[in-house]
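# step 3/5: fold
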Amino acid sequence: MPVLMMSAGGLVLLAAIWDVFSRRIPNLLPLIIAALYLLQAGIAGDWAALPWHLLCGAGVLVVGIVIFSFGWLGGGDVKLLAALALWAGPDQLLLLLLMTCLAGGALAVVYVLPIILYRIPAISGLIDWFFISVLKKPAPHLQAGKTLGLQLPYGVAIAIAGFVVFYQFFRVM
C-alpha cells in the first residue's frame, strides 16, 4: 500500500513544517499517521506482525514520555516518533532511532553554529562588514544569551528519520 505510506509521509512532512514555525506538532497528525499504519496493516492482512509493530509504537511512547518528563523532548515529538515506530516495527526501529539521533545532532549544529561563530570577533566583524558593505543594512545580532533556552524543532529530525524508514520500505517493494 504505497499510497497509505506516501500519505503518512506527507503528514510527517507537514508535522516537520508545523514544528519549524510554531515549535508544536498538533496531536491529530501523529494520530492520523498511526491510523494509516493500522489501515495499511489491515488491508495487507499481515496479522502476525501487527502485535510487534504495536509493541514498538507503545515502547517508544512509554520511553518518550519519560524523556518528555525530563524536558528533553516535546510531547508532539514523542507522539510523532511513536507513530513512526508503528510503521518501522521491529525490523526498522533501530534505524528510525539512530537516524533520529543523527539528524537531531545535525539540526543542533545548524541552530547553534551561527551563535558560536558570531562570538568569534574576526568572524563577527566579517559578518558585520558583509552586511553593511554588500547588503547595505545592519547585520542581525544573534543573542547568545538565549541559547540556553533554545528550542530545536526536533520534529524535523524525526521526519528525516521517518523518511529514511519509508525509503527502506520502498526499496524492498
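# step 4/5: annotate
Residues 45 and 171 are 21 Å apart (CA to CA).
# step 5/5: archive (pending)
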